[in-house]
Amino acid sequence: MAQVMTRKKEKTDYRWLSEKESEIWRKVVAATMLTAPMLEADLQKAGSLSFFEFQVLSSLKDADGELTMSQLAERCNCSLSRLSHVARKLEERGAIDRSQAANDKRVTMALLTEQGKSDVTRVEGRYAESIRRRVLDSLTPEGMDAMETLAEALLANIDPSHWLIAEDDEY
Question: Cβ(52)–Cβ(76) under 8 Å?
Fold first, then answer.
């Protein structure tokens, strides 16, 4: 795979990856692709929440109030259509309530219910332990700083207005 990505077979305007860049990228992909299913499995064991459902519920818990569905989609790094599908399921289970915004009937608001708080509280300790065991424990304090710098640089390149790095935090 590295050879395909690094060799130019014809003249193009592409910036091909060096061998070192290909190696780094493969490691990033491997770490990401291996970690996500492990976190998912740990959440399922802890309380029958998917990784994405947990992200929705914990985002609402962290907000400590209502969020628009657009704000919630941004915090969960997903499309509105994906969020709407999962929000419908969470609403049917009594974990969230959705309603029209008082000042704009086109906007849908999401609010964590007591059931949703209970659901997320039941699994958040397991989730934190899973993150620590699978990711953070492998890092030195310098590695943690480097990972934060890397994540911020990636977010700034991909989405400069991402809520985690935006200067003007409107949330």
Answer: yes
pLDDT single digits (tens) 51-103: 999 999 999 999 999 999 999 999 999 999 999 999 999 999 999 999 999 99
Q: What pTM does this model have?
A: 0.84
Q: By the 8 A CB rule, do 52 and 78 touch?
A: yes
Q: Contact 162/155 with Cβ under 8 angstroms?
A: yes
* Residue 20 burial (CB count, 10 A): 9
SS (H, E, C) the chain: CHHHHHCCCCCCCCCCCCHHHHHHHHHHHHHHHHHHHHHHHHHHHHHCCCHHHHHHHHHHHHHCCCEEHHHHHHHCCCCHHHHHHHHHHHHHCCCEEEEECCCCCCCEEEEECHHHHHHHHHHHHHHHHHHHHHCHHHCCHHHHHHHHHHHHHHHHHHCCCCCCCCCCCCC
CA dist., res. 88 & res. 17, Å (int): 42
Return the structure tokens found at 50. Answer: 């998917």
Residue among 161, 166, 59 at smallest CA distance from 110: 59
Bridge partners of residue 26, in order along the sequence: none
